[in-house]
Amino acid sequence: MQRHLISAADLTRDDAVLILDTAEEMARVADRPIKKLPTLRGRTIVNLFFEDSTRTRISFEAAEKRLSADVINFSAKGSSVSKGESLKDTAQTLEAMGVDAVVIRHGASGAPYRLANSGWIDAAVVNAGDGTHQHPTQALLDAFTMRRRLIGPDAGIGQDLEGRRITIVGDVLHSRVARSNVDLLHTLGAEVTLVAPPTLVPVGIESWPCEVSYDLDSTLPKSDAVMMLRVQRERMNAAFFPTEREYSRRYGLDGDRMARMPEHAVVMHPGPMVRGMEITAEVADSDRCTVVEQVANGVSIRMAVLYLLLGGNEPAVTQTRTEEK
Amino acid sequence: MSKILIRGAKVLGGEPQDVLIDGGTIAEVGSGLSAEGAEIVEAEGKVLLPGLVDLHTHLREPGREDSETVLTGTRAAASGGYTTVFAMANTFPVADTAGVVEQVWRLGKEHGYCDVQPIGAVTVGLEGRKLAELGAMHESAAGVTVFSDDGKCVHDAVIMRRALEYVKAFGGVVAQHAQEPRLTEGAEMNEGVVSAELGLGGWPAVAEESIIARDVLLADHVGSRVHICHLSTAGSVEIVRWAKSRGIAVTAEVTPHHLLLTDELVRTYNPVFKVNPPLRTERDVMALREALADGTIDIVATDHAPHPHEDKDCEWAAAAMGMVGLETALSVVQETMVDTGLLDWAGVADRMSFKPAQIGQAKGHGRPVSAGEPANLTLVDTAYRGSVDPAGFASRSRNTPYEGRELPGRVTHTWLRGKATLVDGKLT
Q: How many angstroms away from the CA of A291 is the closest CA of chain B?
């Protein structure tokens, strides 16, 4: 493992499988009456959120607390950032308070990379989503969810996603989730197809290790998992598509379309969902939809990542068992 | 002023000759000239060029003296071998009146490192709506002949047409920053493979090319000449080549950085590589070099754009666009054009002195190195190789994309009308 987690593209197959396997161990902790490990006791982690986020920040916070880390939450609104303080000064201020890791969410693509590589701070940097670039822990929790559903929690240990067919549908152009997933799923051996209207596919996509299709219906029968991306209503005003209704008719997932997927195939969504836009309530609430599982798995994945970045080489869970005795 | 004998310099890269400067003019060029009463500069092995002329410099004064002033900018120019710089109009206040252009012109004159020829804004406040008083700027002491809203595109086709027509009355030229504004909303880098991966807003080549295509057609229609700033794409080259083949009066410039660097560098997210127009692809770089060699692109212009450290020591989105270039331009041209065999030193003199002086009508600059001409000269040690150290820059700013990069060539002497502004690489 590297010292930082900036991009899903930085992970090797073995790194990624190690994180998924570690997350599996962490998931078992969640089933215990006391959901806490002492692994990061005495370590301080700051959640540095320059962009609004509820679920990702809470998920990181839950993960940090379950590992017994001291947690500082920093959100840009109402802070000195709104008074013009730079990212560099903010980061250095926090580090001066003795922070071991910075979990950063930023609206600017590359901000976590800059934070990790400019010599501004020494702390480990975890990217919690930067602009339209990357969201590596989201990709990891998605892969974790797929492995559990398509292979099984125990059977999946040590396994990657070789040969699985994953379809990602929606606003690829503005999606850090799509970018991270394409990178990670490719590393794990899966075959990825992106489906979107041509206006929401970036120019230059030909270098990505995936297929691109404009036709959802022909892709669905060949999918083991279908991931729906949120489509912001504002995009309509920028002429990416004519109307919401036309978008959801052509690219939304409803019950009829779900019926064309293979029986074992699952529906995924990184949240927050726009019901009635990219996904109907019928699909969102069905057993095949993993949205709620993804949230639970997010905590396990983030525990695994923080543990592997900060916890050193000692095994996370076995050490706890020793202490419990 | 006394006599100076430059001994054994390869004039424009040719056979070694002696050049005698007397006062402000070149007295004699030949071999074995008498050194009597003259200060001698041994120039064996070095190349002597006419003083370089930069048609595209941002001096930042008035308004952003924290990044550059006329003094520091002209010192940087002298240090890079320049004897004239054209100062862009996007200052605070904007150089859209006779008052502002005269101020900049006077400051250049007072400091004496390099002639400063102000460029006037095409539209009031660079806002693209209303023509600035172009005639008043031309008639001012600054004698403005080049007009540009650089930093912004004169995107309104009617305003552009009127500007092209209007300046014909006094032989002016409009220099267009070709950037279709709607296609570049939120643009942060070249749109292509790298932007798709990095998730940075794309600046498509077509946003430059469509404006150039429109403007050469407009220039043709109204019978004006037009100058295109900082060409950055292979497609732009094709359009300019086509326009020239049709006899349209278009001239074009390329920056040193677009001759050397590509958008692959943006992968570092280091804002020192953030510039407008953005760094393009290898294919574009090669097309630009070829076009500069065959004359499709007329000149090299630096687009020297100083910014304070804090405007680059930040995340990509928050960073300012632009790079300093005056002190590295000739080295980059040697690296990309001379050492590759695309251009000889006479060609460099043409692209960096004769032609830009001609386009901008810089009197007494861009003249042949021969007797009776003003002694605006640059002496280059072309055998030198060294890595770029921004700490040694005369510019107030350090935002160079070449830090630590080894580049060939070094300007050792610059003379402005016979007065040395740079001696042995040190400013006077």
A: 25
Is B303 among the residues known to form the active site?
yes
Q: Does A51 touch chain B (CB under 8 A)?
A: no
Q: Which of B197, B206, B403 to mutate to test binding with chain A, by most A CBs within 10 Å of its CB?
A: B197
Q: Under CATH, which number does the domain A136-294 receive?
A: 3.40.50.1370
Strand partners for B6? B19, B41
**8-state DSSP, A234:** H
Q: What does DSSP say about strands B377-387 and B299-300: parallel, antiparallel, or unpaired?
A: unpaired
Q: Which residues pair with A125 in a beta bridge?
A: A102
**Number of domains into which chain B is organized:** 2
Q: Which residues of A are annotated as a binding site for carbamoyl phosphate?
A: 55-56, 105, 135, 138, 271-272
Q: Do B200 and A133 make contact, defined as CB atoms within 8 angstroms?
A: yes
CA distance A112 to chain B (A): 9
Residues spanned by the domain of B38: 3-47+373-427
Same domain for B39 and B166? no
Q: pTM value?
A: 0.94
Question: Is A88 an 8 Å CB contact of chain B?
Answer: yes
Q: Is B111 annotated as a binding residue?
A: no
- What is the pLDDT at residue A322? 35
Minimum-distance CB partner of A179 among B199, B316, B317:
B199
Q: Supply the CATH number for residue B188's domain.
A: 3.20.20.140
Q: Are residues B87 and B16 in the same domain?
A: no
Task: Give A163's DSSP letter.
Answer: T
Structure-token match 């890269």, residue found = B13
Q: Computed from CA positions of residues A57, A58, A59, A64, in that sequence, does the dihedral angle turn out positive or negative?
A: positive
DSSP secondary structure letter of residue B131 = B
- CB-CB neighbors (< 8 A) of B195 in chain A: 202-204
Closest residue of chain A to B313, computed from CA coordinates: A88
CA A4 to chain centroid: 15
Q: What is the ipTM of this complex?
A: 0.90
pLDDT in the model for residue A318: 42
Q: Return the ∠ at Cα A44 (arms to B269 and B315), rounded to 5°.
A: 15
Question: A111: nearest CA in chain B?
Answer: B315
Tokens 């080049």, located at residue? B146
User: Could you tell me which CATH class the domain A8-134+295-324 is placed in?
Assistant: alpha beta
Residues B112 and B235 in one domain: yes
Angstrom distance (rounded) from CA B114 to CA B116 = 6
pLDDT band at A319 (very low <50, low <70, confident <90, very high): very low
State which residues of chain B have pLDDT below 50. Answer: none
Rounded to the nearest angstrom, the minimum Cα separation between B296 and chain A is 28
